[in-house]
Each structure stands twice: as structure tokens, then as C-alpha cells.
Amino acid sequence: MQLTDLSFEQRLVSKLPGEAETAPRPRQVLGACYSRVLPTPVAAPTLLAWSEDCAALLGLSEVGDSGRVAEVLAGNRLLPGMAPFAACYGGHQFGNWAGQLGDGRAITLGESLGPDGVRYELQLKGAGLTPYSRSADGRAVLRSSVREFLCSEAMHHLGVPTTRALSLVTTGEPVLRDMFYDGNAAPEPGAVVCRVAPSFLRFGNLELPAARGDQELLVRLADFVQQSLFPETAGSGADAHRVWFGEVCRRTAVMVAHWMRVGFVHGVMNTDNMSLLGLTIDYGPYGWLEGFEPDWTPNTTDLPGRRYCYGNQPGVALWNLARLGQALGAVGVTDDDVQAGLEEYRRTYESTFGSMLADKLGLVTIDDESELIDGLFSLLQQVETDMTLFFRRLAQVPMDHDLTSSALHPLLPAYYSDNLPDAELLAWLERYRSRLQDQGVDEAQRRARMNAANPKYVLRNYLAQQAIDAATAGDAGPVNRLLAVLRQPYAEQPEHEDLAARRPEWARHKAGCSMLSCSS
């Protein structure tokens, strides 16, 4: 089946109130969950990249006519049943209530039933003006679109809960952006990403009507969320909302534990960027830890307080859930219910991340292993160490032989310095070996467990930037090569060994390779 053969509907549009006005002029939207708006056509849409894995979710077996596909996935052409809209929501940004925000450059086309029985929404990011665009143009540039397209799929194959990306389409039109917010705006190539998820509803969708005191709208939206997205929490009213709030807390904990497992830093954990389904959403200035630095943030806007740094992510998610719980007070979720949900988050995060750490080390369990874990994290910070490479290559250290300095050789590529803490590292390895022996883990078991838990390939910022540079020059090859490699992040893939290397020195301070702004 091809894209143009899909049938579409939109439950949110049919069951929740939208506003009557359809013009994309900026405005406050009251008493409505969405605004009907059409994508703005672009001059020359061209399909640059396509995810076969995401397409399979929708039952698509082939791309078909790439020209017709590009027309649809750029927003130039609607298919039968599509009912485009932009969602209305608010959010806490960097800890402060920001009021109405909404889909300023994202337009949901409709939802289609996949062969797995799940309904998937297709959303175009960069599709033009909406009532929530404020002073912006509703467009997205190629650099941010490449990053979102690749990372959505990379995260899925890493096993991280995430929204997906079906396609990357260039528009043939320039977009003016001030990349560093320094007054030097310049034209960049425009692009549109088609994102796919069962829903793009966020914490902020519920926060906004609660903040406005619009209880009727909040009740309708909360009932829709619970009944449509959490059917397992059967029933209606406060009891059902309490149960699904607990489920949101549980799913969020699992998602954040996965982020921490692979060294991913979201960069903008505002409540409007938190999915009610516990999916990673809105790939902006994200990054992977290059050196293991718990206070590292990839977002230049976040530098003053480092609110969204790697080490803060579990706590920020808890804070965001508390804001969601407060919003649900108007639909009968009590303070005790909120505290119970937050405790579910804590328990789930602790048990999930603990299990993940055990897998990363090849252990059966890490109960009562705080000394071992704390010692490891201290070592990783003592000398600049690449987290991804260290855990992957730790499996190659022979734990069934005498531990001498030569045993450290497999770990050398993970270090940015030749001055390894040899004595401390060997002492830690001895403690680690003792735990393996106590738990009866042999070398084959250890290596198999570790290689299944520790990726060899992640979407490092410098790799993404190289693909962006090539795509800007008209060469989609590096984008598609990365897409193919990141489909198997735990496999060896010796022909792609160059994509598993630590960040080169030339990329340490290069724009797009170290830190990024929120500019799209």
C-alpha cells in the first residue's frame, strides 16, 4: 500500500470543540482545544528521506510516486479524510508559566489505523502559519528537520519511547533564521518533517484550560484523553482520571530512565514538550553526552541555570508531573492522588533505571551496589570519558584474566586524554569482577547482556551536523547512511566503524556539534 491509499479520520476534531475561525492570524484561542488550519503550500517539495520502519507502522509497503508523496508530506495536497488542525496548549517554560503556546509550526493532518490496530496521527512540522505562530513564520529549516527526522528514528531503534518520523521533505524555499540570536539572521533551506504518534497531546494541553478556569473544556479534554488514549483505565470521572494520571507518571519514569541509560539530554523539558503518552517529543537542542558530565546541557538558552542538564532530567520530569497533577485538580484528582502518582514515578524510575544499570554492567542485579555505581560515575567524571564508548567497550575488558594495565586497552578509545586513572580504574574493575563472581555471571553471559544494553551507535551532534551540511549542499547520502546505521545501534556493523568514534576535536566548539539554540 502507498501513502495515497491510506484512509484518514480525526477523533480529536470530531469529539472536542474547536474554534470557528480558520484564519492563521495570531490570537488567543478560548474555549477550544484546536484551530482548524490548512498547511501553507511550498514552491518545490522534494522527498529527501523516508523511513521504511515508520512507514510499516502505517501499513505502507512502498514509497510510490515520490513527487505525489512529497506534495502530501509538505502540505501542498490533502488526502480524503484529512482534517488539518493546530492544537491549543500552554506550558511551563524553564519553570515559569508561559500562558498560551500551541502548535506554532506543526499541523496535524489526521489519523490512520495501522495494521497493529493502533491509530497514528500524522503531523507536519514546518507546515506554515497557525494561530499559535505568534510573530514567527510557522516554518522549519533543514538543519533542525534533519535532526528531528534522524533522532526520532534513532531513539526508537535504541528502545526509547518516542514519536516517530516518516519523512523529510525539502520545500525549495528559504527560511530566515537567527541561529544564535545575535542579530545575524540569514536565509536557510526550508524543510518539513512528517511526525507520527498515537497522539501529540502534552501536559500543556490540560494545563491551559485549568489555568484559565475553563472547567467545562478541561473535563471534556480529560475525559477524551482517558477514554481514547488510556482505555485500560475503564470508567469515567475522578477515579479514572486518578488511575490514568498514575499511568502517565509510570510511563514518564520509564521514558526518562531510557534517556539516562543511553546518555540522551532532551534540552527543553518544558511541560509543553512532555507527552501524555510518555513519548520523547519535540527534538530541539538535544544531545548525547560526549564527555560524562551530569551538569551538561546542549541548549544555549539553558546555560545560565542548567535546569535541563543530564543529571536534572529525572527531577524535572517529577516537577512537570506535579504541574500536570495540579491541573487535574479541577476534574477531581486530589492532592493525595497526585502524591500517589508522583510516588509511582519515583518507584518506577528507581526500579527501571536500576535494572537498566544492571544490564549495562552485565550484572543480574545492582541491589546494594551503590558503592560500585557511585565509584563508576566518579571515575567517568575524573577524566573526560565518552559514556557510550566506555560502556560498550567495557564488555571487551577480559574479566576472567588478571587485571593489569594491559587489560585497560579496550577502554582507551573512550577517553579524550591519554592520562587514564589507571590505579583507580583497576581497583574499580576488581570490585566489579567480584560482583560478577558473586552473582555467577560468566564472560559469555556478561558480554551478551552488555552488548544488548549498550549501543555502539548513537546520533552524535557532529554526525548530525555533517549530514546537515551534505543535505544543504544537495547530497542526501549521509542522512540516509545514518538512518540505515542507526536502525541497528547495538550491532557491530564494521563497515560503519567511523560512525562509532568519539567526538573529534574539530567538533568540540563548532556550531551544531556541541551546543545548539532553540532556533529552528
> What percent of the residues sit in helical stretches (DSSP H or I)?
25-40%
Number of distinct helices:
15
Give me the oligomer status.
single chain
Averaged pLDDT = 95
| Main pleated-sheet profile | 6 strands, antiparallel
Overall, the morphology is globular
Unreliably modeled segments:
none
**Mind telling me the C-alpha Rg?**
23 Å
Give, in order, the helices and strands. HEEEHHEEEEEEHEEHHHEEHHHHHHHH
**In percent, how much strand structure appears in the residues?**
5-15%
**SSE-based structural type:** alpha+beta
Count of DSSP strands: 13
Cα-to-Cα separation, first versus last residue: 33 Å
What would you note in describing this structure?
With 520 residues, the protein is an alpha+beta fold. Among the domains are: 3-199, no CATH class; 363-440, no CATH class. Helix content is 38%, strand content 13%. It has helices spanning 11-15, 52-57, 66-74, 142-158, 203-212, 215-229, 238-262, 313-327, 335-361, 370-382, 387-394, 422-438, 443-453, 461-472, 477-486, and strands spanning 18-19, 34-36, 46-50, 85-87, 90-93, 96-100, 106-113, 119-125, 140-141, 164-177, 186-197, 264-265, 287-288. The strands form 4 sheets. Strands 3, 7, 8, 9, 10 and 11 form a 6-stranded antiparallel sheet that branches. A hairpin with a 2-residue loop joins strand 5 (90-93) and strand 6 (96-100). The longest helix is centred in the last third of the chain and has 27 residues, at 335-361. The chain is globular and about 75 Å long. The chain starts with 10 loop residues before the first helix and ends in a 34-residue tail after the last helix.
